[in-house]
Fold this sequence. Notes:
Blueprint: H1 2-16, H2 28-34, H3 36-39, H4 44-62, H5 75-122, E1 125-135, E2 147-156, E3 162-172, E4 178-186, E5 195-198, E6 204-205, H6 213-219, E7 226-236, E8 241-243
Antiparallel strand pairs: 1-2, 2-5, 2-6, 3-4, 3-7, 7-8
Amino acid sequence: xxxxxxxFAVALFAGCSNPKDIVFGPEPLKQIAxxxxxxxxxxxxxxxLLVGYLTITEMGKAFGADVKPATGRTVGEVLVDAKAWxxxxxxxxxxxxxxxxxxxxxxxxxxxERKAIADKISTSxxxxxxxxxxxxxxxxxxxxxxxxSLKYAIENKSDxxxxxxxxxxxxxxxxxxxxxxLSVDIDEPVKSGQTLKTxxxxxxxxxxxxxxxxxxxxxxxxSSMKAxxxxxxxxxxxxxxxxxxxxx
Length: 248
């Protein structure tokens, strides 16, 4: 009988020497710090995973998440959950990277399509921004705030009348940094072979309490900026329309 008790005591001691057999109390992270010598017997990878997992579960409990507690369970049991959690995180990260790659691929595809349409439109028309004006308030004509207006020179190089043209004008400073851009809608017909100088299209309200793109463009001298027109769509008098896809 005494021999059996000795064997049991030795087995119990041997079991306790395995850190994976340690049972977590009410404060697992504090327990790891206090029993550092025991937990150092785990591999560095397992220790880091265990601490990371327990930290996440403690945060989850603080926010009311339904988290399986570590208290009353062995280190080995918690590590099983921690490794499953790690694999789940890896899978989620891989899925996120896959989605990001798909979005980037779609964006590159659309950008290529937009460039192809812009290049095709550019064979039919050339648009130059030749001036910008700030129109003062004029209540008599319904101008209740200052307005930014652009003046364009439009050359129709095609053999058809252009009915409408849309695109964006990007303004850059002398260094080449972008100041801002404006969406432009030119709806005045331009006959084949004609070069038209016009301010057709809508203006842009200037908000004196803002410093957005419109206000930045309006506030600079035109000679200090470079304006570039990027065509996005064109409609001809005969009904033909070329239109670039929207950016995702």
